[in-house]
């Protein structure tokens, strides 16, 4: 079964809202903006988020991938997880 970007997005948004009351009360999420730059999460939040995504999707996010280019918005996180899952599925 192939995971879609929408499934990853929904799961990620639910996780972010569960752990952050400010995000939970937002009508629309900033999908293309940095949650760090907007002040919604800090460096500990990033570590928590990486750990969650790795455990949830059974992937490994390298330290070098935790950058503005690859991890700088919800959309970028979704794309990174999707890419990791595609690579993982091609290895089997």
Helices, by number, come to 5
**For the CA atoms, what is the radius of gyration?**
13 Å
- Topology as H/E string? HHHHH
Class by SSE composition = mainly alpha
CATH superfamily: ACP-like
Shape: globular
Distance between the termini: 13 Å
What fold name goes in the CATH topology slot? Non-ribosomal Peptide Synthetase Peptidyl Carrier Protein, Chain A
From the 3D coordinates, which CATH architecture would you assign? Orthogonal Bundle
* Residue-averaged pLDDT: 93
CATH class: Mainly Alpha
Helical coverage, percent range:
55-70%
> How many strands?
0
Low-confidence sequence ranges: none
**Proportion of residues in β-strands:** under 5%
Number of domains: 1
Q: How can the largest sheet be summarized?
A: none
Q: What does this protein structure show overall?
A:
The chain is mainly α. The chain has a single domain, classed as Non-ribosomal Peptide Synthetase Peptidyl Carrier Protein, Chain A (Orthogonal Bundle), CATH 1.10.1200. It contains 5 helices and no strands. Helix 1 crosses helix 5. The model has no long low-confidence stretch (mean pLDDT 93).
């Amino acid at each position: 079964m192939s995971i879609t970007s929408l499934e990853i997005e929904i799961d990620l948004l639910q996780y972010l809202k569960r752990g952050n009351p400010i995000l939970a009360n937002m009508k629309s999420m900033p999908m293309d903006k940095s949650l760090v730059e907007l002040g919604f999460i800090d460096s500990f939040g990033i570590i928590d988020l990486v750990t969650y995504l790795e455990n949830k999707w059974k992937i490994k996010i390298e330290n070098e991938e935790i950058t503005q280019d690859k991890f700088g918005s919800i959309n970028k996180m979704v794309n990174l997880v999707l890419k990791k899952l595609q690579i993982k599925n091609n290895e089997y």
